Amino acid sequence: MGIERIVASSERDFVDKSVDYIEECIAKHQGRSASNFVLGLSASNGRMRRARQADVWSTLAGRMGVDWSRVFVFLVDERYGCSSQEESNSYLIRDTLVKNLHRRASGFPEHQLILPDTSITPASACAEDYERRLCKMFEEESGPHLVTFGLGGDGHIASVFPEWYQSVPERWAEAIQKKRTVLVTETSKFEVRTRLCVNLRVIREAVNIFVTLQEGSEEAWTRVKRSFDEERFGERRHAKRAKVVEPTGVFLSTDGFLMVQAKGRKPKPAPKPPDSPLHWVLRYSTISTMQLAVDKENHYAFVVLGAAGDLAKKKTFPSLFQLHMGRLLPGNMHIIGVDNPQFHKDVTNVTDFWDQRLREHLEKQKGWVNEDLESFKERLHYVQVQLDQPDTVVALDRHLRSLAEDRPKEHRVFYLALPPFLFAKAVENLRERCWSQSGWNRVIVEKPFGKNGTQAAELTDSLKKYLDEKEIFRMDHYLAKTLVLNLLTLRFANRELGHLFHCHHVANVRITFKEAIGVEGRAGYFDGYGIIRDIMQNHLMQVLTLVAMEAPATLEAEDVRDEKVKVLKQIRPIAPRDCVIGQYEGYQLDPDIQAINRKRGYPSRSPTFAVAVMYLDNERWSGVPFIMKAGKGLEVHQTIVRIQFKKAPPNSLFGEQPQNELVIRIQPNEAIYYKILAKMPGLTQQARDVEQTVLDLDLKKRFELRRTPEAYEKLIHDVIQGESHNFVRKDELEQAWRIFDPLLTTLEEEEKRVPETYSLGSRGPLKADMLIDRMGFRRYTVTGVPGFAEDDFD
């Protein structure tokens, strides 16, 4: 019996080593004994740690070295009175370990899973029921053999909280009594306050104890090791209480013997509650501790310039918070908000920044608990910087160096949540006064990347003075949408499907973006750009390249981006006759637009809707129209790619039938479905009685996704990893403007075209549908397939 320390180098390593240890304990027991193995599992608090626990249990279920028909599993602790069943530890273990065991037909019997029945009320009755079933199992199976738990920052073990037993000293006697029991404990630290847990006697009787330390520091390990040494080898372990008899009198018995009368025994006082139950638990058993190592080599800083602005508080920081909860940020990364005090006088320090800007938006995220918020807040710093005062930039550099604590390598990400006209000034100051000399530096710039090709080139040139192309990450969040990321896989991992992407089979391709809302709140910004610049030239063009590109030589970032650029070079500039623009009724009534109109002297001609048709001059797509449509104030909110295949020849076997379609729904409710023909069911139906139906790949249903990451999360994570697949390269930007610049010049300067008006909540202008019809696209009546009738129009 002893203690060992296991240190993991990464989150993945943490999961693998935890599972290795549990599997080894079970396999050793099963190799030398015919008896069953009893495994006690404890879940953690907070989304980060529960997600780690879920990974451990899911991975454990896949290990082949365990005979699960000979394993009993019980919960060391449970949350009682959860607002949702999914918050319970029972659900967590069923949704990860048990579900995956059943999926691979491991032979794990349901009756060998012992869980509290939290439907029993009150909590004390639930505890009695669980205690009865557990003790029966322990007696029959001679367990437990392994118990896992996390050691909390306050020293609690599972759900035995110091605050619970210290408030009423008699409770400590309950926690350590010789009888195996189930306790009802309380805590104010976490969102679910009432807990059920086995007493410390059950934990200490385990042959092996596996302790997860929440800190990776040397100090955390030293505290546990010191506790272990004191219990196993220290003075208190060998100290014996002297037995003293206090005489009350001496007398002679009737037999002539000298007798001593002693006092009556005093009842033992209740044991004094310790600061932590750790000493008591570590007295017996083989102890193993697991820690995530502290990286002493590298430090990471994520610096957000413009941190007090709208974009940062609504998108950037919520995405960083989600990455934090998902354990996807480096453990020693600090997040530094930076802004100009002249524009945000209410934010002067990190407390103001948290209270005035972040808390409201972070609390809107799902799945967090107070522990998650507090741990994220510990990463945060706030520094006031004025780009026209170099000393403040130097002060930022000093602050970053102090956070690095003399680690050999400093890596810095600079996220420019700034207006584009400040990009060059910001990069110049950062490069000269706040650049890491010992690690990598990366700069994220947000769209718009200029208003036309000339401005885009000027912006690119200004950045190139100070940055290499590999240091620039131009963010277009559409590239990180789940279904956009899936386009390469759909086409090139499914070879037979990829062959359909050809002019021999495809009649037309439609890429449609719709928003049901108007431009309220950002009309002043939007009017200067319009829907073509705001959506088509960047978001939808990126989608088009992934639909139309050839297979890259490899999946390396530069090979993928090379193929995207080839597609862009083959697209003709858009002919003005192949474009219809619109503007929804009421746009001109927006106060911001009215102010712009008064200054300009005429009504705004900025389009809120557009349809444009493009052609690719290559063998694969020769003659196929790519119809791009984007609009605000329309009837639904969705983004869809629709590949419509050619009709069967006249007088074909099944007569006049709808065209088949492959539909990729990017948002909302990501899905891929293939609209094909099938025979209608029924006794009276003939062979020619066919109808359009759907082959459906719903990602959320098929892959049981608990949560689909937001696009900003994916992109920020990619930057930290140095992955540039999903960012726009300089030549991509140039080619996209080459396609759209002539059209925009014609519409805005030569024709000065007035957009067609359309009603809010409609499909857009009638002329747009006429143009689409002219390109050969046909709409078909929805067949009533559940789940698609309401969103099958674009």
UniProtKB/TrEMBL annotation:
Residues 488-776 form the Glucose-6-phosphate dehydrogenase C-terminal domain. It catalyses: D-glucose 6-phosphate + NADP(+) = 6-phospho-D-glucono-1,5-lactone + NADPH + H(+). Pathway: Carbohydrate degradation; pentose phosphate pathway; D-ribulose 5-phosphate from D-glucose 6-phosphate (oxidative stage): step 1/3. Residues 13-222 form the Glucosamine/galactosamine-6-phosphate isomerase domain. Keywords: Carbohydrate metabolism, Glucose metabolism, NADP, Oxidoreductase. Residues 303-486 form the Glucose-6-phosphate dehydrogenase NAD-binding domain. Pfam families: G6PD_C (PF02781), G6PD_N (PF00479), Glucosamine_iso (PF01182). Its EC number is 1.1.1.49. Catalyzes the rate-limiting step of the oxidative pentose-phosphate pathway, which represents a route for the dissimilation of carbohydrates besides glycolysis. Belongs to the glucose-6-phosphate dehydrogenase family. NCBIfam families: zwf. This is Glucose-6-phosphate 1-dehydrogenase. It comes from Durusdinium trenchii.
